[in-house]
């Protein structure tokens, strides 16, 4: 028998009320499951096996109900070989708070709408696939894969990656990120807010968009950072010793810059006592428009421009080389190579400091124009020594004959009275 309209409305109303009461009741009595000992390890939702000697609970797959929480106590280790997920794939969020150690072994995973807060250690050799927020003030070491297309990653601890991380979320870093694997920020943004990001040899970081940097970003030799633009905010330092294909904007004046040498002999750091660097780059000797004086230039040549000077101002440029750069500084001025006075000082750590005193429009300024800036190119080196001319063998015999004859005549003159030389 069919329902009339009023009955149908009442049924829908009843279902709605029951549903709301069900959700409200669940929210009000959201459960927190704490892993703290062998008893809790064996209980739901973990249903794991306990090793008392290491305080380790080994579990396979289990689910966390929406709105419920799992807490790993300090001093406790959770070894995960299966999957942890949100049973309902819906809000309210399920959460994991780790104060101990979570080891996700190969084949294990955490994912499906779970907020992760870590103050302890997470070692991931499996997979983390998250649609919510990862907040880390502890240590996360990833040798597996991480995919986050949820809300955010907030790091004030240490994240070390040798695996693959795909992060399509806003990322805020005030801690430390060390990468020797692959980090792909495909659709997200990176805000290095006073933190440290180090990309080591073999590591690749892809930035899709603008990265704000008020901390330190270092791309070491053999590392690659692709795409995007790094905005060095006030206090931000970006040091590129590897490959960087993106753009760089220095919002605040940059009084110090580090540039890899064109010869591959290591980076050179430049600093100026006045103004700031607007550009800086390495130049190979073969690309110079006019060859330099014959000699050895172990670190090649550099081009840079210092701006922000008052007209005619003098500045001191200090260059730090990782090894002996030579004895003279040669600078190309109006098409002529000029030796600029340079003070070379060896340091106890094997580096060398070279100091130049340059003047806008005067000594050491490539454009020789008073225009509130000083430009290069130039480089340190040692001139080839001038060789002593070699005489032909026959000419040497003549010199020896004349010398012997002179000695003989001198002796004869003394020994024979009345002897006269020619």
Label this structure with key terms:
single chain, 5 domains, elongated, 11-stranded parallel sheet, mainly beta, 12% helix
Task: Walk me through this protein's architecture.
- This protein has 422 residues and is mainly beta.
- The chain is built from three helices and 44 strands.
- The strands form six sheets. The chain has an eleven-stranded parallel beta sheet.
- The radius of gyration is 36 Å and the shape is elongated.
- It has five domains: 1-25; 31-148, no CATH class; 151-252, no CATH class; 272-383, no CATH class; 394-422.
- Strands, count: 44
Query: Largest sheet, order of strands side by side?
Result: 1-5-8-11-14-17-20-23-26-29-32
Helix content: 10-25%
* Low-confidence runs: 5-28, 387-391
User: Helix/strand-derived class?
Assistant: mainly beta
How much of the sequence lies in strands comes to over 45%
Radius of gyration, in angstroms, nearest whole number: 36 Å
Q: How would a textbook summarize the main sheet?
A: 11 strands, parallel
Number of domains: 5
SSE map:
Elements: H1 5-28, E1 32-35, H2 38-42, E2 49-51, E3 56-59, E4 62-64, E5 69-72, E6 77-80, E7 83-86, E8 94-98, E9 101-104, E10 109-111, E11 114-118, E12 121-124, E13 127-130, E14 133-136, E15 139-142, E16 145-148, E17 152-155, E18 158-161, E19 164-167, E20 170-173, E21 176-179, E22 182-185, E23 189-192, E24 196-199, E25 204-207, E26 210-213, E27 216-219, E28 224-226, E29 229-232, E30 237-240, E31 243-244, E32 247-250, E33 256-260, E34 267-272, E35 276-283, E36 295-296, E37 301-307, E38 314-321, E39 328-333, E40 336-340, E41 342-346, E42 352-359, E43 374-375, E44 378-383, H3 393-415
Parallel strand pairs: 1-5, 3-6, 4-7, 5-8, 6-9, 7-10, 8-11, 9-12, 10-13, 11-14, 12-15, 13-16, 14-17, 15-18, 16-19, 17-20, 18-21, 19-22, 20-23, 21-24, 22-25, 23-26, 24-27, 25-28, 26-29, 27-30, 28-31, 29-32
Antiparallel strand pairs: 2-3, 33-34, 34-38, 35-37, 36-44, 37-43, 38-42, 39-40, 39-44, 41-42
């Amino acid at each position: 028998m069919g329902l009339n309209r009023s009955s149908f409305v009442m049924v829908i109303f009843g279902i709605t009320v029951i549903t709301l009461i069900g959700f409200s009741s669940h929210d009000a009595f959201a459960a927190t499951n704490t892993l703290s000992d062998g008893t809790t390890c064996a209980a739901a939702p973990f249903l794991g096996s306990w090793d008392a000697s290491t305080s380790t609970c080994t579990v396979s797959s289990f689910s966390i109900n929406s709105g419920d929480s799992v807490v790993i106590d300090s001093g406790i280790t959770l070894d995960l070989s299966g999957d942890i997920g949100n049973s309902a794939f819906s809000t309210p969020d399920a959460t994991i708070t780790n104060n101990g150690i979570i080891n996700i072994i190969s084949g294990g995973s955490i994912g499906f709408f779970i907020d992760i807060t870590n103050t302890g250690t997470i070692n991931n050799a499996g997979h983390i696939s998250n649609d919510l927020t990862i907040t880390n003030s502890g240590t996360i070491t990833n040798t597996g894969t991480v995919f986050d297309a949820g809300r955010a990653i907030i790091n004030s601890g240490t994240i070390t990656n040798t695996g693959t991380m795909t992060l399509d979320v806003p990322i805020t870093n005030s801690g430390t990120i060390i990468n020797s694997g692959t980090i792909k920020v495909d659709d997200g943004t990176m805000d290095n807010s006073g933190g440290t990001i180090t990309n080591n040899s073999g590591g690749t970081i892809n930035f899709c968009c603008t990265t704000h940097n008020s901390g330190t970003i270092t791309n070491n030799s053999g590392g690659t950072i692709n795409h995007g633009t790094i905005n060095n905010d006030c206090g931000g330092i970006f040091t590129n010793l590897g490959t960087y294909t993106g753009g760089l904007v220095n919002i605040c004046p940059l009084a110090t810059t580090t540039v890899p040498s064109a010869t591959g002999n290591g980076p050179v750091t430049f600093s100026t006592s006045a103004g700031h660097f607007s550009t800086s780059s390495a130049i190979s000797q073969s690309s110079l428009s006019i060859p330099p004086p014959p000699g050895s230039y172990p670190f090649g040549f550099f081009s840079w421009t210092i701006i922000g000077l008052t007209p005619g101002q003098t500045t001191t440029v200090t260059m730090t080389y990782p090894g002996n750069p030579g004895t003279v500084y040669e600078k190309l001025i109006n098409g002529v190579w000029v030796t600029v006075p340079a003070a070379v000082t060896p340091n106890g750590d094997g580096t060398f400091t070279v100091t130049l005193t340059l003047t806008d429009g005067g000594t050491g300024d490539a454009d020789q124009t008073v225009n509130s800036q000083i430009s290069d190119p130039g480089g340190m080196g040692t001139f080839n020594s001038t060789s002593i001319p070699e005489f032909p063998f026959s000419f040497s015999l003549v010199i020896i004959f004349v010398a012997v004859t002179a000695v003989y005549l001198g002796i004869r003159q003394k020994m024979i009275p009345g002897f006269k030389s020619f």
